[in-house]
């Protein structure tokens, strides 16, 4: 069976400059696109947007800087669960059999930073015909308290173990842009676009477009970075935005 991994960027489904604000229209549009397509196996991952990033920044927590403050963990994780509820509900309203999966309860980092994210439970969910919906989160980090786990990292952790054949990262831009603002149709090496890549302008503790490109280049799957306008094309198996392949 074909397994599809889709990352909905936090900047797509929230207003990243307004703390804890869902972009209702954008989320409903994305959910409608997913509800209109039949899949063998689908896993959705969403970013933190104005929910997780806002709290993580306030507490000084990132992928490398941890915190042992349980209150910080509750703030970040609680905000992400709230956003996850909104995403799951929107998908369910469109007939998608979505179920929530919270990484804080399932994943952790070892003391060398290696991410351990069991996938057996996700495979069992997929076997039931469900659509697991994961999200960026805090995770326990050996000897460092808790650090941020980004949605892009989750994609990497799941891609190989679930045998994903196609991966999509839906962002607010139509793809990776060159120095002239045009979409780069294909990337096979980071050096091809290194000069043009920049970081997110809004508060983001997980990295910008550069991190996304590096993430996808580490995978063997057919991967794309695209904007909401190309979501339907991606779901239909067509080219969308920037094709990233090794």
TrEMBL record:
MF term (GO), any: isopentenyl phosphate kinase activity
GO CC annotation terms, alphabetical: cytosol
Residues annotated for substrate binding in this entry: 48, 53, 151
Site (Transition state stabilizer): 16
Function field: Catalyzes the phosphorylation of isopentenyl phosphate (IP) to isopentenyl diphosphate (IPP). Functions in an alternate mevalonate (MVA) pathway leading to IPP, a key precursor for the biosynthesis of isoprenoid compounds such as archaeal membrane lipids.
Catalyzed reaction equations: isopentenyl phosphate + ATP = isopentenyl diphosphate + ADP
EC nos: 2.7.4.26
Quaternary assembly: Homodimer.
Ranges for domain Aspartate/glutamate/uridylate kinase: 3-218
Keywords: ATP-binding, Isoprene biosynthesis, Kinase, Nucleotide-binding, Transferase
Biological source species: Halocalculus aciditolerans
Family to which this protein belongs: Belongs to the isopentenyl phosphate kinase family.
Protein name per its UniProtKB record: Isopentenyl phosphate kinase
């Amino acid at each position: 069976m074909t397994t599809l991994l889709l990352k909905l960027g936090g900047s797509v489904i929230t207003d990243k400059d307004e703390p804890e604000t869902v972009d209702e229209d954008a989320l409903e549009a994305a959910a409608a696109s997913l509800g209109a397509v039949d899949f063998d196996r689908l896993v959705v991952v969403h970013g933190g947007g104005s929910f997780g990033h806002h709290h993580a920044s306030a507490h000084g927590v990132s992928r490398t800087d941890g915190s042992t403050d349980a209150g910080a963990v509750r703030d970040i994780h609680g905000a992400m669960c709230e956003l996850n509820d909104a995403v799951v509900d929107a998908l369910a309203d469109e007939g998608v059999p979505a179920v929530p999966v919270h990484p804080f309860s399932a994943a952790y980092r070892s003391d060398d930073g290696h991410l351990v994210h069991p996938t057996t439970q996700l495979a069992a969910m997929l076997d039931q015909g469900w659509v697991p919906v994961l999200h960026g989160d805090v995770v326990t980090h050996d000897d460092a308290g808790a650090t941020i786990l980004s949605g892009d990292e989750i994609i990497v952790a799941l891609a190989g173990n679930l045998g994903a054949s196609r991966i999509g990262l839906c962002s607010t831009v139509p793809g990776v842009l060159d120095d002239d603002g045009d979409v780069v149709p294909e990337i096979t090496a980071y050096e091809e676009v290194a000069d043009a890549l920049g970081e997110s302008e809004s508060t983001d503790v997980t990295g910008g477009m550069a991190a996304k490109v590096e993430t996808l280049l580490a995978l063997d799957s057919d991967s794309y970075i695209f904007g909401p306008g190309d979501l339907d094309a991606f779901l239909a198996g067509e080219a969308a935005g920037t094709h990233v392949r090794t």
